[in-house]
Q: What sequence folds into this?
C-alpha cells in the first residue's frame, strides 16, 4: 500500500529532539497513512539505538560518515513511497495534525507544488522564515539594515518577509527547509536536492527549481509546528558558519553567475565589518558605563 505521506528526517547527534520529533509526528497524524524514514549521519549519541527501541517501525538508514544534509535527505527520498514527500528537521515538533492539514490543503489545490506550515520557536514566538529569492537588491538591504531601519519602504525590504503576518495563506518564493511538503510528481519533474550543497541553501535552490517549473509554493498557516532551531549547528558553530557562507556562494554562482557573486561577496564583507564595528562599539559603551 502506498502511504499518503513519507517523512524524511536527517539526524546528527540530536537524540532527544529526534525522539520527540518522531513521537509528535506519529501522535499528531490521525487521518493520513504515514511512513517515517530517518537518515543518520554517523551520530555518536545513541540516536539510532534509542529510535529502534522506541519506534521499531521507523525506517533507518545509517551512514558511517556525515554525508551532509542534501545527500542524506536524498537517500531518504529515494526509498520513500508516499504520494507526498516531506522533509522535517529533527528539531521540529508537530502540532495539531500538521501533516494531515498540509495533505488536505494540497489535495484541494493541485496547482500547489510545495507547502509549508506556520512555525513558532520553542518559546512560542512566531518564526518569520519565509524569504524571497536572493538578489543584489535584497542582499544590499540586508547588509545595510535598510529593511529594519525603514520597514515601511517596500523596495528597501530584505530577503525575510517581515511584512507578512503569517496568519493568511500566501504564495511565497522560499519556504523554510525545516518543514517542507512536496508532491511526488514535483520531485519527479525537478529532481532531488542538489548534493553540491553540503548544508544550507539546498532549500532555496529546490524552491527556485520548483518555482521555475511553474508550481506554486505556499505557506499554509492552518498547519503549525514548533522549530527549536540550531540543534545540530550549535554543536559546531564555526564549521556551520563556514558552510553557510560556502552554500550561499554556491547558490549565487549557480543561479546568478560570477559577476553578481563577486558583488554579493563584497556585500558580505561589508556586513561582517559592520557587525564587528557594532560589537566593538557596544563593548566600549559598556566599559565606559561600568
A:
Amino acid at each position: 500500500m502506498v502511504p499518503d505521506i513519507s517523512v524524511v528526517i536527517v539526524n546528527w547527534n540530536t537524540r532527544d529532539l529526534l525522539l520527540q520529533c518522531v513521537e509528535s509526528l506519529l501522535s499528531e497524524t490521525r487521518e493520513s497513512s504515514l511512513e517515517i524514514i530517518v537518515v543518520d549521519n554517523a551520530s555518536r549519541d545513541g540516536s539510532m539505538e534509542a529510535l529502534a527501541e522506541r519506534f521499531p517501525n521507523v525506517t533507518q538508514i545509517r551512514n558511517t560518515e556525515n554525508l551532509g544534509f542534501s545527500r542524506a535527505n536524498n537517500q531518504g527520498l529515494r526509498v520513500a513511497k508516499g504520494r507526498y514527500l516531506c522533509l522535517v528537521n529533527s528539531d521540529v515538533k508537530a502540532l495539531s495534525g500538521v501533516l494531515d492539514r498540509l495533505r488536505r490543503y494540497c489535495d484541494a489545490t493541485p496547482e500547489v507544488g510545495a507547502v509549508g506550515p506556520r512555525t513558532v520557536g520553542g518559546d512560542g514566538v512566531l518564526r518569520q522564515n519565509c524569504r524571497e529569492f536572493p538578489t543584489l537588491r535584497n542582499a544590499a538591504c540586508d547588509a545595510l539594515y535598510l529593511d529594519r531601519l525603514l520597514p515601511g519602504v517596500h523596495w528597501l525590504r530584505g530577503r525575510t518577509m517581515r511584512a507578512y503576518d503569517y496568519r493568511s495563506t500566501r504564495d511565497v518564493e522560499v519556504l523554510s527547509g525545516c518543514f517542507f511538503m512536496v508532491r511526488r510528481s514535483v520531485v519527479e519533474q525537478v529532481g532531488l536536492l542538489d548534493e553540491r550543497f553540503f548544508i544550507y541553501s539546498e532549500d532555496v535552490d529546490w524552491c527556485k527549481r520548483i518555482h521555475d517549473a511553474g508550481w506554486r509554493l505556499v505557506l499554509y498557516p492552518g498547519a503549525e509546528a514548533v522549530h527549536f532551531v540550531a540543534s545540530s549547528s550549535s554543536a559546531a558553530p564555526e564549521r556551520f558558519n563556514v558552510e553557510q557562507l560556502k552554500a550561499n556562494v554556491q547558490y549565487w554562482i549557480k543561479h546568478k553567475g560570477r559577476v553578481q557573486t563577486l558583488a554579493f561577496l563584497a556585500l558580505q564583507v561589508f556586513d561582517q565589518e559592520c557587525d564587528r564595528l557594532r560589537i566593538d562599539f557596544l563593548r566600549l559603551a559598556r566599559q565606559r558605563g561600568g
Residues 171 and 218 are 4 Å apart (CA to CA). The mean pLDDT is 91. The radius of gyration is 20 Å. The beta strands are 5-11, 34-41, 59-63, 84-88, 92-95, 112-120, 170-171, 179-183, 216-227.
